[in-house]
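Exercise 7. Predict the joint structure of the components listed below.
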Amino acid sequence: MQIREIHIDGFGIFTDKHLTGLTSGINVIYGPNEFGKTTLLDFIRRILFGFPRISTSTNPYPAVHGGAYGGRMICELDSGEKIIISRAEGVRGGSVAISTGSGELSGKNNLDNVVGHITEKFYKNVYAISLDELQEIQSLQGEDIRNRIYGAGLGLGSISLVAVKNEFTKQGESFYKPQGSVQKMPSLFKEIRDLEREIKEVQKDLGKYDDLVQQHDRLIKNITALDCQIRELESKQRALENKRNLYPTYLELSDAESELSQLEELPQFMEDALEKLEERKRELTALKGQLDEKSDGIKGLELKMDALIYNEQIIEREPDVVSLQRLSGKYESAIRDIGSVKDASATRAGQIRKKIKEIGQEWTDNIIRDFTLSHLQKDKMLSYKESINEASETVDGASSKLEYHRERKLGESPKGFGGPDFYRYAVYCMAGIGLAGGIWGWLSSEWALAGVSAIILIIGLSVAIRIWRGNRIELKDPLEKEFDEKLREAESQRHRLEDEWHDFLRDINFNENLSPDGALEVVRAIENIQSDLSSLAELHARIKHIQNTIDEVKELHDRVIPCLDRSAVSGDIVANIEIFMQHLNVAKDTKRVKEDFSKRIDELTAKINDLKEKKETAEKEIQQYVSSLGAIDEEDFRTKYKVFTRRIELRGKIDEAKRIIQSTIGRGEHYDNFIESISATNPEEIAFQLNETDIQLKELKSERDQKKEDIGKLRNEIERLSSSEDLLVKQGEVELKKQQLRDYSREWVKSQIPLFALEKAISKYENTRQPGVIKAAEDVFSSITNNAYPAIIKPIDSDELRIRDSLGFNKSIIEMSRGTKEQLYLAMRLGLIKEYETRSESMPIIMDDVLANFDDARGPLAVKALEEFSKDRQIIVLTCHKNTLDMYKQLGAKDIIPTLV
Amino acid sequence: MKSIRFVHCADLHIDSPFQGISAIDPGLGKMLRHSTYQAFNNIVDLAIREKVDCVLISGDIYDSADKSLRAQLKFRDGLNRLSNEGISTFIVCGNHDPLNGWSATLEWPKNVFPFPGDRVQCWPLQRNGEIIAQIYGISFTKGDISENLALKFPRVDESVPCIGLLHTNIGANTGHMPYSPCTVEDLSTRGMDYWALGHIHAHTILKTSNPAIVYPGCSQSRHPGESGEKGCCLVALESGTDPDIQFIPTDIIRHKSDVMDITNYITIDDVISSIEKKCEEIVTDMGERHAIIRLSLIGRTDLHTELHRGNIVGDILERVREDFEGRTPWIWLEKLTLSTTGTYDLETLRSGNDFIADIISIYDELEDAESESWQEIQGTLAILFSNWQGKNYIEELSKEKLLELARQARGLTLDKLMGTE
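Solution:
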């Protein structure tokens, strides 16, 4: 890298100063003292490596004339790329920025990448030197510089041995560092120790568990003992409670037994003795009751019988009353119908007389009643009628034919239509209307009208044709004659038949003037009258029958009516019949009731007699029963029975009391002991003992509860201890960490062995192979000293340099003059630079009047050597000596002074 | 000789923490914690399912040093289940659970026969009131018994099968504490038909008959070093025939360490997918057990430098774990060790004339335990292994381990000096 421009915003005495035109090769910046050369040197160093911390040993170069602290340098890399390195005030050496063609970068790391990871120390001691650094032998003792001296011949290419060693060192120290505490291994070790302490704590659980289990077992025993005591006390408490609770029962038992012992024993009495007596008494009482009931019944019936009276007469007339009731409806009809039937009879007789008169005077009702006409005669009459009618029709037919013939003959004359003219006109009119209507109907599609019109037209035309034809018939003679003969023959036949008819009429006593139809009409009238006469006879018979019924009813009514009080009856026969019936029914019912009463009285009387016998028997049995149980009488019986029942009651009490006591206490010995025990105490004493027991029990139970609570806690703790995974988890963690620690120790070893090997190899290399730096330095030193010292020696066992003169004598540093020493150091630096730049980015070399102590002979030689060295490099020379400037200028160096100031 | 069937188990180590694991998912961690108890439950289930005559437990039921109360109570719960089924349990205590390590208040259930520590006791095993076997045994009274307890057993000659229960290290098996050491000869002369031993965590049958001498191994492995299946023995002893000894796995979680050559791998994604494939291959014969897997990547590969950069290994681990997350049963890639080398040729480098050749020569010196460098590095490392207060937790480096680490360090050094970093 070479610097092309320097821009100082604010640094020491410089404010807003610019140095441009720097080129490859030697650039001389000439200026007097106080000009600011050292300030410029430090500015370049600090732009590249940062502003140092403020301290007494370093000059901070504050911007005394104002301006922003810092500045920038425009540089050109070996690759030809231009970059701008700028640095401003800030923490950790100030904020640095690198502007490249491809963008902006910032931070030390990026700058290191650009400048090839050169260290500040190396740059300061090798590249950017003033007379002070040149004279300081120590400035060439740094490990980096020392490694650089030998590194050129290591055959490691671009690998830096220091970097490799640093890497191994860093790697090793990440695991372990003596006295260190934050590295991986001591950190892990601490974690393991902590975990082990925790494990020890958890492991105490085993002993704790055993203690807890023992405590638990002790407590169980204690509780068992307490349970035993509590059970005993509870037993005692229950016994006392039983005494307290059963004491009233015991008293009842005791009293009952005492009373029982004083009562007479009645072995013959049974529990149902009184019940049996009472049963018998109830039976006797029932018998008495029945007796009384039956006697009262008889009395009641007798009273009721006396009160019952009925009409015996009407009962005797019951057949008449029944007949009357049967005929009552018929009688009512007869009374209602008789008038109308008589009127119908009279009307019919009148009609018959009128009909007889109509058929002729000769007819009477008797003649008619006796008149008969045989079927033969009737048929003959009909036959005459037909024959005469046929003969008449024949006459009419012949006559008509003849007449027609004559008319026709007349009509055939040309007179045309013989009828009146209006007929003709009517016919024409009809035909016209029919035609017009047809056309109209056809045109208007009125087919009904067209049809009707067509019919009218046809009729009109037919009539017209007929009229027209009739007028043209003509009568002719032979036919007329024939017709005339036939007429006469027919008339003759008719006359003969009419004669026969008259004869027939006479035979049957009919008026001979009657026509067959008239005769037949008379026959039908006679038959009609005969029917009426028969109907009249039936009406007469009915009237007679009705009258008979009326008469019969009246007779019966009259027979019955005396049986009743007159006030009870009326004049109306039909109403009376109803009254008769009512009275008859009442009398019959009363009679029947009375008869029932009588019958029941007889029955009751029989029953009373039976009951009396039973009552006597029952009374005897009661007395026998009382005596059989040792009692004198019923009263004595009852007294004894009371004693008997009391004994039972007392026994019951005793048994119940025993049952109650035994249900609590038990039987046999327990019961006996309890009775014996309770008889010897009293309620007050029991209450006292009970109270005492309660207090003891409460105390024991409280103690037991406490212990149970303790056991619960113990069990929880035991459960917690026995189920805890803490130990295993922590042990697992420890094992993991131990393994990690072992792995780390191996990794550490793998970093220490290379360090060891590298140190050994470097030593070996130093001892056996000549470093390239020395060789390069030798060339420069030989040139500066004009071959006075052709060789530089690096002893095997020392870091000190020696020089060998042309005669082969060695000189140590101490033996060298100041100028020679500075020339050697300059040569060494140039050798180092040459070696360094074989594998790193070149850096600008800055020299602040380093040739001050070189004599006139070696000064120009040094300048020449520098000129030679500056090919492909950049050397910036700062000087306050004009002759120095001139020397450089003679060799083509560039004078930069005017642009800065 | 009567015939009997029994379950023989030992080294249950109920509720003892897992060791040697540096990272575990919390869910799987919980399963790990419960796995020893579950394995014991599996034994109880087996005994009940097979309706055996008895269960023999040959010591180290739990670690009394853990002072775990829960372990004892859980053990008792299992015994209760057996007792309720009428199955007798015979117990001897071992170095991890000597008689003096049991809870003072713990009561054995019915049908449980613990053996005393002061003498060999004989318990008859009965079926329907008839003695069908004689069980002999003696417990550890304390953790460090160096006496040959086998010699305390009587020489028996019974008509019924005789079984000896003992927690012992036959022939001072390396890798196990040499408690109660004895020899096969010591056991063979006692007249027993079956020696039910405990202490060695790997299932081992030292003799198949006359007498059978059997270690069932632990019921659940608790360390990545205890790989393979773990369980108990289901044994049938019958007259005139060799015992039928069936190994029944009871473990819940199984460990497996394996290597994977990634010589020809090109990308990290290839490595990840191959690791996952390898894990799936490993668990194929594990059934429904959860697997904790350690893989070591080997081979000369271009990926070597990339694998060593930053926390790539951690990232791969995370990725594989994420990919297996939610899988049932679990696959947990517990550790991924890088034992790869770069594509550089060590011999060529060694023959160079530069700093690399010098540093390889230093590492070559470290191969020799007698060399000055070996002594010097011991001194360098003593700062941690001898002087640090936590030194007791990090285990002294064995010569082999140091050599292994030195080789890894050489790789790391060369990576850095020759790589792009």
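Discussion. Chain B touches chain A through 62 residues (CB under 8 Å).
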